Structure formats: structure tokens, C-alpha cells
Amino acid sequence: MSDPSNSAAGDPPAPAHPAASQLRIVLVGTQHPGNIGSAARAMKTMGLSKLVLVAPEKAPDRDTHAMAAGADDLVEAAPVFATLAEAVADCRWVLGCTARSRRIQLEQLHPRDAAARAVLAAAGGPVALVFGRERTGLDNEELQLCHAAVHIPSDPAFSSLNLAAAVQVLSYELRCALLGDAGTGEAGGGRTLPPGEDVASHAELEGLFGQLAEALDQIDFHKGRAPASAMRKLRRLYLRANLDSAEVRLLRGVLADTQRMAWLAGQGSSTGKIE
């Protein structure tokens, strides 16, 4: 049997789809260096080249390159970030690959639907598919950075997937979507729609969320209740809206005036006067 990483003799390579360069596979907290190489190989067989690492427990080593089996160039070119927020700061859409049993209530997408929407979104900028740690996956804080979740419908009786196998499944679906063969996936059928070309970057949205959290504290919105639940719901609401940069600036302007009025009210209370 021939090595599947090699093209069949006489088959010309398929032309690269322009969206492929915008699709990013992000591995968070990888525990085994060999899995980085296996994931790189899975990507390269499907025409993907953008691998990103976030805080791997061990740097790529000889096992990584052995398992890459010809995809060493992806490993060597992969940037390494300290946090997921940094790795996806310039992304227009972020999908977290995870199991269903999570407290973060993201829309769950089938891999085929996720891939079709990801390719559409990649027309407007970088798109990230994020994979978590081998044993524990993505934590709740990391999932909050995602617009939606991708769930591979494996057999419940034996549902555990190797990291590289999960990357292979999603890479295959992305390949099909890039080739225009999305199967039964319906790219426009879900609640979390892919963003347009002018959608705000992930960093811009995180700036908005940070300012929103501060403003809500300053106006005592939570009334002593834990703010986490409200912020999760507000994040989902704004992420579904696919805000563009101008809309983010408008909302931050509203928040700035809200914060200013809250400060003035506080000053008036401290002096006994409300102006």
C-alpha cells in the first residue's frame, strides 16, 4: 500500500484555493510532541499549511519530526504563543473543537457545517479551528474566545479521539469545502453565521468585552451577583452579531460615556452633590 502522504504518480497537484491560506489550525497546550507532527501531517495531506501552537508542554523534538513524515515545514514555520487570545487576535472567526458536555453554551456545529462556514468566513480574513489538550481539551475560559463549537459525532461507547485524528477529520472537511464539495452541510443554516469581509478582529472584540465588563461593574449592573454568567451571555450575543470595526467603535463610545457618567455620579455622591 502506498504512503498516503505522497501524490499518485502522474496526478498534477490541485491548485490552491485562495481561502486555504486563511485557515489556521491552533493546538493549545499539546502534551506530546509527536502529536504536533501527526497533526501537521494530517493538515498537509489536505492542503492546509497554517499551524499555530499555544503553550505546548514540550517543544517540538525528534518525535515531532518523525511523526510529521514530510510535513516538517509546517512544524518549523508554526508560531508559538503564550495564550490562545494572542494566537487568534487577528482572526475573524474562531471555532473550538470540543465535546458536548461543557458549561459554556456555544452553538454546536457538525464538522461539515463548520468547515463550509469556515471557508466562507475565510474570504474576509483569518479563521481559526482550535484544538485543546489531549487529556482535558479546551478549558471554559478558552472556549469563551470561540464563536461556536465543533463536535465530531464519534461513537458514544468509545468517543475518545486522538488529537491528530480530530485534526484529520476537520482538515478533510475543510478540504471538501475548499473543493466545493460540502456534502450535506448547510453553510447558512445555523444561528452563528460566518462573518462578512468587514467583521471586527478578535482583538477588537476582546477590547469591547473588557470595557463592557468594566462599565457593568462601574454602574453596579450585577447588584452583587457573580458577573460571569451575564458576561458569557453578552459575549454570545455580540459574537452572533458579527460586528464590524465601526460598530465596535460605536459601542465602545457608548460605553466610554457610560463610564464617564458613572464616574461623575460617584464624584457627586462623595461630595453630597449630584450635578
Question: What report would you give on this structure?
Answer:
The chain is α/β, with parallel strands linked by helices and 275 residues long. It is 43% helix and 10% strand. It has 10 helices and 7 strands. Helix 1 packs parallel to helix 2, helix 1 packs parallel to helix 7 and helix 8 packs parallel to helix 10. The chain starts with 22 loop residues before the first strand and ends with a helix.
Provide a brief overview of the structure.
It contains ten helices and seven strands.
Helix content: 40-55%
Q: Kindly, what is the distance between the CA atoms of the first and last residues, rounded to a whole number of angstroms?
A: 82 Å
Question: Can you list the strand order of the major beta sheet?
Answer: 3-2-1-6-4-7-5
Q: Order of helices and strands, N to C?
A: EHEHHEHEEHEHEHHHH
- The 3D shape can be described as elongated
What would the average pLDDT be, to the nearest integer? 85
What structural class do helix, strand and pairing data support? alpha/beta
Rg, alpha carbons: 21 Å
Share of β-strand residues = 5-15%
Structure annotation, total helices: 10
Sheet of most strands: 7 strands, parallel
Provide keyphrases for this structure.
275 residues, alpha/beta, 43% helix, disordered N terminus
Produce the secondary structure layout:
Layout: E1 23-28, H1 33-45, E2 50-54, H2 62-68, H3 72-77, E3 80-81, H4 84-87, E4 93-97, E5 108-109, H5 111-121, E6 127-131, H6 140-143, E7 148-150, H7 163-178, H8 202-218, H9 228-241, H10 245-271
Parallel strand pairs: 1-2, 1-6, 2-3, 4-6, 4-7, 5-7
Helix pairs in contact: 1-2, 1-7, 5-7, 8-10
